[in-house]
Amino acid sequence: MADLDTGVDAADLTDDDLMREMSSLHRTRLDTLRHGSDAALANHLRRTAELETEYLTRYPGREVDPSRLRD
What we know:
mainly alpha; about 0% strand; globular
């Protein structure tokens, strides 16, 4: 169910919607960090964590690019 402050529950999103929502949040991240109110930043952080947690729940064996690994 949607809520104006929290959005649709991440578990209720389709895979395409989940990816779209995460892409949108990552696109607006720097602007929110630099110019958003404290409440906006807190909401952005909460929503990002919620969506990324759902992604990891759905894709626990996600493909990891070896070139992105560090010692």
